[in-house]
Amino acid sequence: MAIATVAVRFGLYLVLMIQFGVAAFSLYGLRGAERTSGRVLPSASTILATAVGGAVLSLLSIIVLTASMAGVAITEVDRPTLAMLVGQTSVGVAFQVRVGALLLAGAASLFIRHSRYAGAALGLVVVAAGIAIGTLAWSGHGAATEGALSRIHLAADIIHLLASAGWIGALMALLVLIFRSGRRITEDQLRLSHRALASFASTGTILVAALVATGIGNMLAIVGLTGLVRLPFSLYGQLLVAKLLLFAVMLALAAANRFRLVPRFETAMTAGDHRRALGALRRSLTVEASCAIAILALVAWLGTLDPSGETM
User: Fold this and answer.
1) 185 and 237 fall within a common domain
2) 104 and 160 both lie in a single domain
3) Range of 122's domain?
4) Any bridge partners for residue 305, and if so which?
5) Which of 111, 205, 279, 295 has the most Cβ atoms closer than 10 angstroms to its Cβ?
6) Over the stretch 14-68, which tens digit does the pLDDT of each residue have?
7) pTM value surpassing 0.85
8) DSSP bridge pairs for 208
9) Cβ 154 vs Cβ 38: under 8 Å
């Protein structure tokens, strides 16, 4: 049951974050026909696929949770218990809101290929996907905090999720842009890739600042100052340390991309020899995206543990 819970949580995090991040990236990183054609970045199909995938995974997550709470196998979950969880708990309400938001995002994706409505449709997807991601906070530690700090912790958790989605989704979009076969890489494609990378630089700085601030706040709310020294001695703490180390690697790679690899790529394009510079960017972004996926897996696992490392 624990493995199924972690797997479903991981899939849900990944799918929703790709949806939000790709939609947001299409708004600030692409222009005009680049958003609608699908040849530059398949935004519409990605959003529609993640809307369907997110809805399916949301249903699976609520079934797995019901089975866990009832102490039965997934195949033995009965409708009355499932209906009670969906209709009478905060997690159930979050599930309903998430599915509604995903349906809205999927419907909006159908208008992205129309140049007249592309911007508005993408904006609507960003809002809907943001709401869907925000509902994930009700299945994490942010919703378990009690007292005066409960709302602050929950808000910080939601901001943390949105900032993570903005970063991870943009990484996936950038990988699509720069991983083109040799025949498909034209000068226009190279310049578009450079512009997109440069556009993400300033956005990425804001996302990192939000992640660091909310991450520190969330950690203190969950383990407290006195609990920091005990982190290496519990499973929860060990996974959290691993997550922080991977995040540090991502920060280092992001800094290298912004201040070294992207300027070098621009210089190489001017000189007419982009292959080595593009290869370095590909490797860096691949490692960065791999770290992000590993972090999501750890977050999915952490959500099933309490700060002492015991399974919830």
Assistant:
1) yes
2) no
3) 1-139
4) 311
5) 295
6) 999 999 999 999 999 888 888 887 788 899 999 999 999 999 999 999 999 888 8
7) yes
8) none
9) no
